[in-house]
Amino acid sequence: MAQILAPSTQWKMKIAEIYSTYTTPTTSKMSSLLLRQNKKGAHTSSNKFQVLAIKSENSTINRLENLLNLDITPYTNKIIAEYIWIGGTGIDMRSKSRTIPSPVEHPSEIPRWNYDGSSTGQTTGVDSEVYLYPQAIFKDPFRGGDNILVICDSYTQEGEPIPTNKRHGAAEIFSHPKVIAEVPWFGIEQEYTLLQKNVKWPLGWPLGGYPGPQGPYYCGTGADKSFGRDIADAHYKACLYAGINISGTNGEVMPGQWEYQVGPCVGIEAADHIWCSRYILERITEQAGVVLSFDPKPIEGDWNGAGCHTNFSTKSMREDDGYEVIKKAIINLSLRHKEHISAYGEGNERRLTGKHETTNIDTFSWGVANRGCSIRVGRDTEKNGKGYMEDRRPASNMDPYVVTALLAETSILWEPTLEAEALAAQNTSLKAKKNHATGLPPCIYVDLPS
Prior knowledge:
Largest sheet: 9 strands, mixed
Number of strands: 14
CATH superfamily of the largest domain: Glutamine synthetase/guanido kinase, catalytic domain
Order of helices and strands: HHHHEEEEEHHEHEEHEEHHHEEHEHHE
Strand content: 15-25%
Shape: globular
Distance between the termini: 66 Å
Number of helices: 14
Oligomer: single chain
CATH architecture of the largest domain: 2-Layer Sandwich
CATH topology of the largest domain: Creatine Kinase, Chain A, domain 2
């Protein structure tokens, strides 16, 4: 049975201090009443608290906000760690809080924990304990101070990664000596859609209806073109505070849809940062009363889908003659297209139709500055003979551990047979000549192996 303790004198003094300096604009009646009482000097701070509780229409909310913003550092060295992990669907995020004795600087200082896997769709009720291993820490923008967000992955009691733990396999690939030597960089463009809470219809859209056609919304400004900017800006600042390497944000082509970019990050760090940024966005939309969707095609019809384009380069690609290394990696990617597509997000076939800046899901292609290809190479990369490439196939709900690890594996570790590589190179050359002759857009299509 929990023991109920009365507040200490120190805490009573703190509460009195908070409410004696209370300035939140609630109602003019409440403010004027407090001023009159302060002038008369007839009431103590506890009476001021009663006035707030009785007279203010928003008193409960106001007191709650004060407690949420309470600075506990003068009274304890303890901090709150929010353990975050991925649930049974592979895209849902779960979290719970734990008190840590003192501030920490590394995940190894944080104790392992467990949770009920039968309630997250990851185990049965007979043997339901799943163990959390802390892997990355970020500053907590919601609680502030030394409090932290902890990205974890999940294991059985015997220390085996559970099937939904994709981080473990990614860590093995990124710890390979060849991969380490290539210092893989990732820049991930996370698109998402904001939905009205009760109707699950995009923010800013008329209920049961549609806005004007696409065109003015991409990077648009104005009440009739930009919906949800406060959420996007709040998320931007919260990520910077947390230590996430967020590099930008913008309104997307479909109204109510936004994008932010994370990177460049090295190796598995990119996926850790994306997962933490997603968690922060979930929390912000929760507070705003808006539903966050990572569906790759939230609205059917003539509307853009939502992707998670992944920019990638290796040390060899960034050095002189790196363009040839990029083209070799593209050949590898073409030969493993089906394997990549199967791991690039649920429902991606509704998005990769060949329309709305995509290529068909059953086709592999690449081109310079062409957003209708599977792989886009920037003009500067072609001009400078080195740089990076962009994989435009991943859906907005992709698992960044899976996608980044696959790109590193296919580009650095995987070696095709000489026959397959020669055939892919030959097909690429023939398709390029055909495109040039017919005047088609500069996108090179590669015949996929059967």
